[in-house]
Amino acid sequence: MVFSLEKWNNGREFQHVIKSSAAVDFNSFEPVLREAFDLFIRPVLGEDMTQRLIKEYKEDTPDKCSPIIYLAQRANANLAVWYNFYELTVILSGSGIQKAETGDYKGLYKYQERQLRENYKTKGFNALDDLLLYLEQSSYPEYRKSPAWLSRSTAIVPGADTVQKYLPIERSRLIFLRLEPHISFIEKTRLPGLIGEKMLSALKEKMGKQEIEGTAFQSLLNCIQPVVILYAAARLVHGAGTLTDKGLYFSSVLAGMSGNDETSILATKDEAEMAAKQFETDAAEYLSLADRFIQEHFPEYFRGKANDAFNVNNDNRKIFWGV
User: What are the CB-based long-range contacts (under 8 Å, 24+) for 177-182?
Assistant: First the structure.
């Protein structure tokens, strides 16, 4: 874990990464911090990198302020509060479960609780994403053995930053986590048929060896990333009508509300279908770019344009389509 009683300093270590009072007691928060660390950070980093992180934490000093420790603590703290949000407001005693209240502070309204909990969740996962990005750009050999590195190093779409280039998701790891199963599906089932299995295998091999930087393979990767992302987004919207972690939303201003605040409403079925079709149309345009690039730079792998599969010369009337 990246918090300890020795460095707690009356809650100042915790306050460094999350807004809180000086009354935050380490013994009370230690179980929820350890739980969040073991649930969300350790599995992603793997055991070797986790032990290296803990070692760096023990050696860290206030004047050193290591970025890896700051990001890990920020992720750990926010995810701990989010995951145990309601447990932190109650006390388990011999008399049962009781709600903690004081004369100076009152509990939040339900809508405030929901919004605050979502904020902790977003900040926590985004900090975890920033931690992974920092480790990718660093020289920690332990990270090269981690599950995160092994999956991201050969992934066509490695993270939220890549998705952000083509979809406005505010670098949200939450949205990326919703897209990830669909990205994996498109990458494994549709992409081999779109660009060819041999072309995809050659690209993956170069990615695994870290040999694509500054080559034609890097340009090819840039061409097919939006294809995978947009088809995945269309699949997500088709299946659930959602894109963000809380739904596909269209902005509107409701009259009569204080300050005419901008409010988001859930998309209708027709609006969701329209968004999905637009994603598919955009994906097809990017696929055309990828086809032309493969034809020009990798002619040995070019099998014809994916969009021209049904455009055949049938002047001799020897081809027919059956249903």
Answer: 177/125, 177/245, 178/236, 178/242, 178/243, 178/244, 178/245, 179/229, 179/232, 179/233, 179/236, 182/232, 182/233, 182/235, 182/236, 182/239
Q: Which residue has the higher pLDDT, 122 or 269?
A: 122
0.90 exceeded by the pTM? no
54 contacts 1 by C-beta, under 8 angstroms: yes
Task: Please list, in sequence order, all residues whose beta carbon lies within 8 angstroms of the beta carbon of residue 215, skipping any fewer than 6 positions away.
Answer: 206
The full length of the chain comes to: 323
Digit-coded pLDDT (tens) for 107-155? 667 777 888 888 898 899 889 988 988 998 888 999 988 888 877 778 8
Burial of 262 (0-12, 13-18, 19+ CB in 10 A): exposed
